[in-house]
Amino acid sequence: MPAHTPSATGHSSAAARVTPPAWAVLLAACAGQFLVVLDVSVVNVALPSMRTDLGLGETALQWVINAYALTFAGFLLLGGRAADLFGRKRAFLVGLGLFTVASLAGGLAQEPWQLVAARAAQGLGAAVLSPATLTILTTSFPGGAARTRAIGTWTAVGAGGGAAGGLVGGVLTDYLSWRWVLLVNVPVGALVLVAGAVWLAESRAAAGRRLDVPGAVLVTAGVSSLAYGIVQTERHGWAATASLVPLLGGLALLGVFLAVEARTRAPLMPLGLFRIRAVWAANSVMLVCGGGMFAMWYFMSLYLQNVLHFSPVEAGLAFLPHTLSIVLGSKLAPRLMAVFSGKALAMTGGILAVVGYAWQSRMDADGTFAGTVLGPAIVMSLGSGLMMTPLASAATSGAAPSEAGLVAGLVNTSRQIGGALGLTVLTTVAAERIAATEGGSGGSGGGADGPGPVALAAGYAHAFTVSSGIIAAAVVLMAVALPRRRA
């Protein structure tokens, strides 16, 4: 499987003279992607320990997740453009360097704001690093079987990172400290940095493209302001100034973002693509689905540890059915799409997910893994896996081949932004239900350490009820908006 460096990508003469080994390129790119995906899931199991050690409230706790998700989503398309313009190797090294330094800062954080800021910096580094890992592979391997194998390995490593996150996070938290779910990135990141500097050759796209930095800043600031406004409603209500100002400010920023995108020569999000029905429909569905599904890992981790009193390692092991079911659904989806239309398969997966989330909403303080977690985990995760592949396929089917990568990036961005907003909404409604249940029971079961397991289980269950409703709305949107074309 020889490495390939086409002249059209504009290599420097020095890079062109030295062709790195194919296995080295593949190893470096996949290692970078593994770190990005691992960090999405590895933190979930450590959340209760983070809260205890740093005194995090529910609002700050959700921002440990959202700070990463929002900056990753908001700057992902910009990161891809930067890699093309300034060089894939350079983007890889800069993104990985920022990610590694931010991991060190997060692992050493002594205050909640320091941890949240470090997570935001991690997300920015990941947004630069992740697109570079894929474009390095596509420009280093010739089209055909070699490139297909390389991308298949990259995809499998990404799935493995997500699957390993819960277990790795549990082991590190249980036997070392929650800090090591972040600090582990430092030695690994340093090794991959050295490997990338030695093994990777520089390449870049043709000159003439520009970076839409204002667009990336505006969309990230707008969504973050909306998320902050939603959080404020829990304490102040929807009509209070403390809630309305960030909510209206976020909407205004997103309006300015659309105006900028309509006028800039090289927009971050070309609005013309949304004239294609498949593109706007699939992205809309992804946005809504992300809002309902992203928070599953967050609330399940809290339920397993705060209510069922699982250790971090036990909680990590408890996530294996979720992970395996998602992988199974993702593997079955391409085969089923040869028989059924992508729209029918996506709707079937969505309905399964609705059933699974509604089933999980029956959790209570007396639950068990076998009786309360296992069945819903298989159903909702299998449905999620079956749904995502046909949605991604629908989004790219209506665009020109030259725009497929951009459209795929839009799908990922929509899912991440929807997930961040959804987590904010669901955390708010869960906190309201926890407070109401704790107050209604006269505080029984709680104490100095916070609400008791009965109130916590009620709040987490309510979040799953709302999630099932959000995903049901996504299924209706699929039925109405997705084209009927067979994939």
UniProtKB/TrEMBL annotation:
Major facilitator superfamily (MFS) profile domain boundaries: 25-486
TM region positions: 21-40, 60-79, 91-109, 121-139, 151-172, 178-201, 213-231, 237-260, 280-300, 336-357, 369-388, 460-482
Gene3D superfamilies cross-referenced by the UniProt entry: MFS general substrate transporter like domains (1.20.1250.20), Multidrug resistance protein D (1.20.1720.10)
Topology within the bilayer: Multi-pass membrane protein
InterPro entries: EmrB-like, MFS, MFS_dom, MFS_trans_sf, Sugar_transporter_CS
A Pfam family this chain is assigned to: MFS_1
Chief location category: membrane
Keywords for this protein: Antibiotic resistance, Cell membrane, Membrane, Transmembrane, Transmembrane helix, Transport
Compartments where located: Cell membrane
Protein's recorded name: MFS transporter
Source species: Streptomyces lonegramiae
